[in-house]
Model the fold of this input.
Amino acid sequence: MWKQNIPLLIMLGPIILYFLIFKYAPMFGLIVAFKDYNLIEGAIKSPWIGLRNFQLLFNNPMSIDIIRNTLLLSALQIIVGFPFPVLMALLLNEVRLKWFKKSIQTLVYMPHFFSWVIVGGIVLTIFSQETGIVNVLLERWFGYTYPFMYQEASWITVFLGSGIWKEAGFSAIIYLAALASIDPSLYEAASMDGAGKLRKIWHITLPGIRPTMILLFILAMGRVMEVGFDPIYVMQNAAVMDVASVISTYIYTMGIQNGQYSLTTAMGLFESLVGLVLVVTANQIARRFGQELW
Amino acid sequence: MRLSRDERVLSIINYVALTLIGLSCLFPLMHIISVSFSGYNAIITDQVTLWPVGISWENYDLLLQGTDVVRGFTNNVVITVIGSALSMLATILAAYPLSRSYCIGRKPITMAIVFTMLFQGGLIPTFLLVKNLGLIDSYWSLWFLTLVSAYNMLIMRTFFQQIPEEMIESARMDGCSEWRILFNMILPLSKPVLATLTLFYAVHYWNIFLGVLIYINDSDKKNLTVMVQQMIQSQQLIAQLGKDAFDVNINLTPEGIKSAGIMVLVAPLMIIYPFLQKYFVKGVMLGSVKG
Done:
């Protein structure tokens, strides 16, 4: 037993050390949120100030706005984005022509591998007011242009749309797998009973992938606090700051660039804690459907 | 089986819808490609939609001579190749022991790794750690911080667990050590998962952005991803292009240069993508198996 385990532990040793240093030590570093951090004394010796950083954050209208934006944008991302992969999988699943299905899949999976820098670059090129192709065509066909990236409502629409463009196809893979595992005899039986295509989708296909949908929706809920840094950073501009400043970009500008370590650590801790609570809650709900993650 | 009329109509609608969706993924990219290969006059008169007009390499010429794009590209390659190799090695060394039922402490160690997916120290404590370790301006900061993705590790562990125990048992009877079992048996049997995860790590390191923004201050070490982002955001692109471009006094359009920059960043992904496509679908599905 021990003899077998020695090589295994030699393999695991560096990995355990790695996780301790690079994943668990920063968790310990969260004490900075309760301190008045200064460079000379460092994280351990800097003086404790209790919850003052949190008081500062929650009494500041700007940080309340930032928290609101974070919640709003990611809730929209989840709710608006959720149906698209399901729809995509349903459509692809009906295709009989192998080559057609493959070509479409190749195309819709591709954007997933592009970074947000690329997607943001494409979005800005296409929607820019003076030279973007969308406005050039609007001008040519209807005689007017629209500042898509500089109006709050249209900025949010473009932001959400680009997220769907990037990920909907790739997310459909899991639903396609779920669809493939539905018992074909159910469809035959339904055909015997005279059910049409849409009725079959409604009564067999959708119930068939319901567990997967619940699971993925819950996973998404757990990430409600994480509007990623990259998409916001590459698409935001001064005109839409009122809706486009979120926790992650705030931590970058105030913390990394302006050295407000304690305050932004407090913000980050708040973000992580809400996230953790949401994941745990979501898992409890999932348990009722027999879909828990742990 | 013959299709009824309704079914035929639905089927046609379906093909049309999917064609439109497919084209919506293709067109934006084609537009960028076309702009990057179009001449100055075509771009400023807004003639370019889906095909290059007045085909030329001038955008690429300008991009390559006036900026640090070549160095940025090299940095991207270095970060990606070494990073993916390190990450794969570390992920294998984590996944194999945790996939063996007799491994001591397997459950708590897996739990501790999964926990890092749910709760993290966050950006600032991580930044302070990297700073204290003296890793600022070193690529080790990028490689260490994402060395093992817990998600990828779980995918690989699930794959290893599916390899029949009897095979491993008989190899052990023949006197194979754990290391030989891992490298001469398990890994050759795991090509699909190795290919998928290598792709995932490589894409991650190729696209890495925030990490370079935070940890790499030395402009010689910035990667292409960050350079392209700065180029896209910049209003005064000409200033960035340096003096050479001025001397030659060529006509240049920011759209043309930016599109060329995006293309240089996209091209390597597009080249490897078709080769790995057959693998990653399996990889993602494995990931959906809970465990």
